[in-house]
Automatic annotation (TrEMBL):
Transmembrane segments: none annotated. The lineage of its organism: Bacteria, Bacillati, Bacillota, Bacilli, Bacillales. Residues 27-66 are annotated as: Disordered. It comes from Paenibacillus protaetiae. Keywords: Signal. This is Extracellular solute-binding protein.
């Protein structure tokens, strides 16, 4: 879920990063040199910390609201090169590390840091493991490299965290984790929970279709609800274009699959969902076992449909060479009629279409259904990484003092709270001469994304908090909480309506059910299987091979290691369900 999209979105949504926003999205220069100047000062108005755990008896528990003398938590940092710092600060010494000392008596010390380009963080961690270097007390890693997470767990350096979480996590954190208990599955080993999932916002990348409503209105057409109706709309967009564009200048449906058939914007995974499967992930089959979506028979129908659309010029001729960001280009230029993607797209990138076509109006619509009335989309994982705790950490409970406070106070600040307007004055917000909060460029020296300074990325997120706020706004509620205000002020105006569309098809989401470490056969066979899959699908879509080629591909996939991988995947699934 942290990409080129995330880099660009910070420029327009950095205010949202205080309590909400995505990920996939920031930009600017990194200043992670080892030098630092004086310690920064957080907002002097900060109040004493709330109790770290509901019902905690401070006379008998190791958990404290504040440690005196201070305790130390060591860590290691993979620094996003887009993170900005102010006042000569670094990831090791900044407003958030000073705040942790003052607020909790916790000193966060860095064993090392590295600018995380070209997987530098993962590379350094693997070198540290192989050379027997000391591991930090707390290690925060993303879930994009499942093998790295597995290697760290199996290194023997980190402890079972389940008992710690049960004992020290507060009610807010536990209730957030219970929204989707399967987030633990990737890190369960022999029944033990070996890392704490880092929660993310639910449905953040679940798809809708974004359509040019102004084109529909000029053509006198309604929004398509089936694939057949979608065919008719795309034909009219191309050959009867309301803006007078020549057919060869129109992209009726802007999609690409250079990166994947199943990604975060502009891919065709939902087309296959209309035929009962989602490619390139593991879905639950009718018999309750897990199957690889790309060999489901519904893929054959979806590939035939994409070949038809390619032949008619409804999708880009270069679709196999287009990544996610490339699919946005014709949409922003005003030459595309439809683009699939998440509910937040009216804030980025579609907000820029009116710069090129002032009359353009994008609206979110439901995913179209297939011949059997099915609609499907890839679901969004409720976590984006993991927290590992060193087996030799002297005060593991201190992490919970820190993180409990995040969930109670920063995850979703309420009106009147000390974080209602921002976190650190002079960093993510400031106050004008009248005492009113100001943001972004109005902050002296510019605002920065302080959420990336905390020990755990983005501080804390409650999975359903953002969607609940969006649904309230969509139903006419006036914005009151900090999150609601941010969503209104910093996301596109269609975002609440798009969120409502997402939730109207909540049962259409296919979650990737295999979230475990690479199986033994995956380690040796998966690269080859992915290669023959991509080749077969591209050849069918481009008409270089008949659609029946799918049958021979599926047979080859199974024979060349796929059947054994399926067996291993289901053994893992049975061990955690």
């Amino acid at each position: 879920m942290f990409s080129a999209f995330k880099r660009q979105l910070l420029l327009t949504l950095s205010l949202v990063c205080i309590v909400s926003t995505m990920a996939a999205c920031s930009s600017s220069n990194n200043n992670n040199a080892g030098t630092s100047t004086s310690n920064p000062s957080p907002d002097a108005s900060a109040s004493p910390p709330a109790s770290a755990a509901a019902g905690d008896d401070s006379q008998t528990s190791a958990l404290k609201d504040k440690y005196d003398p201070p305790v130390t938590i060591t860590t290691a940092w993979g620094v996003d090169p887009a993170i900005q710092f102010k006042n000569g600060e670094t990831i090791e010494n900044n407003v958030a590390t000073k705040w942790a000392h003052d607020q909790f008596g916790i000193d966060i010390k860095s064993l090392w840091s590295v600018t995380d380009t070209n997987n530098a963080f993962a590379t350094k961690l693997r070198l540290a493991m192989s050379s027997g270097q000391k591991m930090p007390d707390v290690l925060v890693v993303g879930n994009g490299d499942s093998q790295l997470v597995s290697d760290l767990i199996e290194s023997g350096n980190f402890r079972d965290v389940g008992s710690l979480f049960d004992q020290y996590a507060n009610d807010t954190w536990k209730q957030a984790m219970e929204i989707d208990p399967t987030v633990w599955n990737p890190v369960i080993r022999d029944g033990k929970k070996m890392a704490i999932p880092i929660l993310d916002y639910a449905y953040n990348n679940d798809y809708v279709l974004w359509i040019r409503q102004d084109w529909l209105d000029k053509l006198g057409m309604k929004a398509p609800s089936t694939l057949d109706e979608l065919d008719q709309v795309m034909e009219a967009f191309k050959n009867q274009n309301p803006d007078g564009l020549a057919p060869d200048k129109v992209t009726p449906l802007s999609i690409g699959f250079k990166t994947s058939m199943n990604t975060w914007m502009g891919d065709p995974s939902w087309v296959f969902g209309a035929y009962g499967t989602i490619p390139q992930q593991w879905n639950k089959a009718a018999d309750g076992t897990l199957e690889y979506g790309s060999i489901n028979p519904g893929m054959k129908q979806g590939l035939a449909k994409l070949n038809e659309w390619y032949t008619k010029g409804y999708i880009p001729k270069e679709a196999a060479l287009w990544d996610e960001n490339k699919t946005a280009e014709p949409a922003v230029a005003g030459t595309a009629g439809i683009i699939p993607g998440p509910y937040w797209m009216s804030g980025w990138p579609l907000v820029d279409t009116v710069k090129n076509v002032p009359s353009a109006v994008w609206k979110p619509i439901s995913l179209p259904t297939g011949p059997d009335g099915k609609a499907g989309r890839h679901g969004t994982a409720f976590s984006n990484g993991y927290i590992l705790i060193n087996k030799d950490m002297a005060h593991p409970e201190a992490l919970f003092t820190y993180q409990n406070y995040m969930f109670d106070n920063i995850a979703n600040p309420q009106p009147g709270s000390q974080y209602d307007v921002g976190i650190f004055k002079g960093y993510d917000y400031d106050l004008d001469a009248s005492g009113n909060p100001v943001y972004l460029d109005q902050v002296p020296g510019g605002a920065v994304n302080v959420m990336r300074y905390f020990l755990v990325r983005d501080a804390a997120r409650i999975p359903d908090a953002q969607m609940k706020a969006l649904m309230d706004l969509a139903n006419g509620k006036a914005p009151e909480t900090r999150m609601e205000k941010d969503l209104v002020n910093n996301y596109g105006k269609e975002t609440p309506a798009a969120a409502k569309v997402v939730m109207s098809q909540v049962d259409a989401a296919y979650m990737n059910m295999f979230t475990g470490p690479s199986t033994e056969t995956m380690k040796t066979k998966l690269d080859y299987l992915n290669k023959i899959e991509n080749q077969a699908f591209n050849e069918i879509i481009y008409g270089q091979k008949p659609v029946d080629t799918f049958d021979s591909f599926a047979a080859a996939w199974k024979k060349s290691g796929g059947d054994q991988i399926t067996k291993e995947v289901n053994e893992w699934y049975n061990s955690v369900k």
